Model the fold of this input.
Amino acid sequence: MDRITTERLVLRPFTPQDLDDLHDLHRRPDVTRYLLWDARTRDETAAALATRCRETRLAAEGDNLAIAVQLRATGGLIGEFNLHWLSAELGRAEIGFVQHPDHAGRGYATEAGRQVLRLAFETHGFHRVIGMCNGSNTSSMRLMERLGMRREAYFVQGEMLKGERADLAVYALLAEEWRGARPQVPAPGLPTARG
Ligand SMILES: CC(C)(COP(=O)(O)OP(=O)(O)OC[C@H]1O[C@@H](n2cnc3c(N)ncnc32)[C@H](O)[C@@H]1OP(=O)(O)O)[C@@H](O)C(=O)NCCC(=O)NCCS
Done:
């Protein structure tokens, strides 16, 4: 991916120099509480970083784009997004995001998320971008709502997370919604304007 510069952030591919900052993120149980993986050792973070350094473009279905989020003011890594190409046939991708708690509550994830959605819809031409999170992860749900994503499903005790049953919230946004257009077709089962 090409570097993207916003008012306060730079979005860019990962490099091996990100290890200290990434480990400061991945070592924290408060960060990984709702993630599918647990707080990492430095070796585990190094392995995760090696994977991210290879995930630099979306060339085929199944590919993941790993995006480092850097604060312009300090040059430090404050978080990460990923954009995972789920289906070529359906034009479907999934976003994921993690941000360091020291940088929470300032709108950085929202600022970065808008660029990731722009990348998904405008650069890669995806039709539908989804995001999923634990039903107790209110920060994550609020972020997706700030990004304009619609909550489409809430599966009560629909998954297992760290050995416990957990709710799963599913959000989505269509390309035409991103462009500001109204969806052409109502979701199945929802009433139409004519009832
Ligand atoms: C999900 C996560 C990235 C959200 O981080 P966040 O700090 O809440 O999100 P932002 O950086 O966009 O900041 C938004 C907050 O800053 C406030 N804010 C301040 N200035 C703002 C601005 N210029 N623009 C937008 N929001 C701003 C918002 O009101 C909001 O506060 P609120 O949550 O009290 O309503 C973060 O909680 C996280 O990394 N969690 C751990 C990992 C995780 O669970 N990831 C999701 C897995 S599915």
